[in-house]
Amino acid sequence: MPVLSYQLYSSRNFAGLEQTCAMLAQHGYEAVEPFGGLFDDPDTLLRAVEVNGLRAPSAHINLTDLESDPARFVDLAARLGIRTYYVPFVQPDQRPKDAAGWREFGARLSRAGAPLRAAGLGFGWHNHDFEFKAEADGSVPMQAILEGGPDIEWEADIAWIARGGADPFEWLERHAQRITAAHVKDIAPEGEKLDEDGWADPGTGTLDWAALYKALANTRAEIFVMEHDNPSDDARFAKAGVALHARLGA
Q1: In whole angstroms, what is the distance from residue 188 CA to residue 191 CA?
Q2: Number of domains in the chain
Q3: CATH number, position 237
Q4: 215-241: per-residue pLDDT in tens?
Q5: Residues paired with 126 in a beta bridge
Q6: Mean pLDDT value of segment 108-129
Q7: 213: domain range?
């Protein structure tokens, strides 16, 4: 069964890190996925993870932070047990506008990840929706990124693929060997959960997670990360994620 993890960004508006990790351990999570800001205080992060019997096999980091000090992230990986880093975002004003630009962005990712790969770590990209919206030249950014960086991995965020207007099943099949982790989140029916930005707890929304788990079984994804971008109750969401994974992840 894939490792059951939790993107700590989901709980950024709730109790402190140590309380969040305690809650996750109580619900049965094995792991957490830290994000950039938490690395400003690695001692607190390490304590919260270890005290609660969790681990952090993957993490999100900012591309410019990695480029400016890759040795820092190699060291953090050794301290925290991180095996793979993913860059999760690029600001709108920094996004290319055509296939050539996105391929160069993929090449930039590849160059940035070289010191991590040299240290035996994995490195890749985590998508949102904009990567699946065609540019004026007809190119699809996600495809160009993967072409420009043929050695980068992909943490596939399924719900963002769908929100980008693409077919998750098609992308999972096409790039099965590039996908080493997946974000498990769900989309509420149109007009519902507006106070939670239209997201739903895993297994309660519009995505066919039973079929998606089967599709993900044909990829290299070893970590399934529960995520909700704006839950009104993170404990409720965390519990739903465990239930879905227990039902489908075997």
Answers
A1: 8
A2: 1
A3: 3.20.20.150
A4: 999 999 999 999 999 999 999 999 999
A5: 155
A6: 98
A7: 3-248
